[in-house]
Specification:
371 residues, single chain, alpha+beta, 13-stranded mixed β-sheet
Length: 371
C-alpha cells in the first residue's frame, strides 16, 4: 500500500442530470445531460461525523443477460462485500475527497482519482452540491480484485451510500446509481449490471443505456435463493475477457439468448428457482467464448449440475463460477464438487462461498454523531 500523501479529488464534471424524479422500480436519465452543483437549493449540512456503509458482491450477466442483468449476493457475516467509512475532514479543502486508509490483500492506490471509492465519493459530493465540507474515506476490501464478483462496484456503491448518509441521505436511489456509474465508467466502462444491484439490491435489469433506464425485478420473499460462488486462483482481466467476445452473432444464437434472458426475468418475477437456474445455464454467445479461457470451467459447470445445482455459469467476466440453488442444504456439497473439478480439470486451486440473494443492496451499518 502506498503511504505517500495524495491530492484530494473533486467530483467529475460529467455527472448526468437528476432533475427529474423517478420511482424506485424504474430509473431513467439521459447520459447527455449534466448535473449542476446547484441541483440542490443549498449546501447541505452534515448529519453525522462519520458513516460506515457496506455494499455486497454482485453477479453480472446471469448467463444470457450480458451487460444488462445482475443481482446482489451476500453472506450472513457481511464479509462478501466492501465497507467504507466516510468521515468529515476539516483538514482537507472543502468539496474534496481523500482516502486515508485501505485494508486489502491487494495493493490499491490511495489516490482518490485512481480509486473506485474516491471517484464515486467525489461524484456524490457533486450530486449533493457540497461546497463547504470535505470527506476522508477508509476502505476495507472484502472482495478479491478481478474475481468477477463486482469488486470495483462494491467499493463505489459503499462510497456513495456512506457519503450520501453523511449528509442526511438526500439522494434518491436513481442518483446513487449515477454517482456509482461515474466510478465504473472510469474503471471498466459504462455498464451498470454490477453497480446497480450493488446499490439497489436484488435483481436489476438495465433496460437501456441511452437514455439510461433501470428496472428492479421484485422477487417473491418466500424464494430462498442461494448462490455457490467458487473462485479459482486465476486472473481473468475484464479487458481480456471482453476482447474474446465474438464480433458477429448468428441470428439464431441471438434469438435463443434473448428468449433465455426473457425467461430468466419471468422466473425471477414468478419466484421460480428452477427457471432461474435453467436460464442462467443457457448462454450461447458469451459463455462459450469465455469458458475456454478459464481452465476447467466446463468441467466445473458439469460438476455443479451433476451435484444438484439448478444452474451454473460464469459470474461477470470470471473467473468465478456461480451455481444457483434453492436453500443452502446442498451448498457445501456442490461447492466441494466444483472445487474438485477446478483442480482435476484445470489444475487450479479454488475457494468457495455459499451466499444468499441480497435484497437490501448498499446500506449503512454504523454512524458517529456530530460533536
Amino acid at each position: 500500500m502506498a503511504t505517500a500523501a495524495t491530492s484530494p479529488a473533486t467530483a467529475p464534471s460529467s455527472f448526468p442530470s437528476t432533475a427529474r424524479k423517478s420511482t424506485l422500480a424504474t430509473l431513467r436519465v439521459s447520459r447527455k445531460l449534466k448535473l449542476a452543483p446547484s441541483a440542490l437549493s443549498s449546501d447541505p449540512s452534515p448529519a453525522f461525523r462519520s458513516v460506515t456503509a457496506f455494499a455486497p458482491a454482485t453477479v453480472a450477466n446471469l448467463g444470457p443477460g450480458f451487460d444488462f442483468l445482475g443481482c446482489a449476493v451476500a453472506d450472513a457475516s457481511l464479509s462478501l462485500g466492501d465497507t467504507i467509512t466516510a468521515t468529515l475532514d476539516p483538514a482537507l479543502p472543502p468539496g474534496t475527497v481523500a482516502i486515508s486508509a485501505v485494508t486489502s490483500p491487494a495493493r490499491l492506490s490511495r489516490d482518490p482519482l485512481r480509486n473506485c471509492a474516491g471517484i464515486a465519493a467525489a461524484a456524490t459530493l457533486r450530486a449533493l452540491g457540497i461546497r463547504s465540507h470535505a470527506v476522508s474515506l477508509e476502505l476495507a476490501k472484502g472482495l478479491p480484485l478481478g474475481s468477477g464478483l463486482g469488486s470495483s462496484a462494491a467499493s463505489a456503491a459503499a462510497a456513495v451510500k456512506a457519503v450520501d448518509a453523511l449528509f442526511g441521505s438526500l439522494l434518491s436511489p436513481h442518483d446513487l446509481v449515477l454517482a456509482g456509474l461515474e466510478s465504473e465508467k472510469a474503471v471498466s466502462g459504462f455498464h451498470a449490471d454490477n453497480i446497480a444491484p450493488a446499490i439497489l439490491g436484488g435483481f436489476v435489469l438495465v433496460q437501456s443505456y441511452d437514455p439510461f433506464k433501470l428496472v428492479q425485478l421484485p422477487c417473491p420473499p418466500a424464494l430462498h435463493l442461494c448462490f455457490v460462488l467458487v473462485t479459482p486462483d486465476f486472473e481473468a482481466p475484464t479487458s481480456k475477457m471482453r476482447a474474446a467476445l465474438p464480433k458477429h452473432v448468428d441470428i439464431g444464437h441471438h434469438v435463443r439468448n434473448a428468449s433465455q434472458a426473457a425467461a430468466l426475468v419471468a422466473a425471477v418475477l414468478l419466484g421460480d428457482a428452477a427457471g432461474i437456474g435453467s436460464a442462467m445455464s443457457s448462454d450461447g454467445i458469451v459463455e462459450p467464448t469465455r469458458a475456454p479461457l478459464i481452465p476447467g470451467m466446463a468441467a466445473v459447470k458439469a460438476a455443479a449440475l451433476e451435484a444438484g445445482a439448478l444452474g451454473c455459469t460464469i459470474s461477470g467476466a470470471g473467473p468465478t463460477a456461480v451455481a444457483v440453488i434453492q436453500g443452502d442444504e446442498k451448498g457445501e456439497q456442490i461447492a466441494r464438487r466444483m472445487i474438485d473439478a477446478f483442480w482435476l480439470a484445470g489444475k487450479l486451486e479454488a475457494t468457495a462461498t455459499v451466499a444468499q440473494l441480497d435484497r437490501a443492496g448498499a446500506r449503512v451499518i454504523a454512524t458517529s454523531r456530530l460533536e
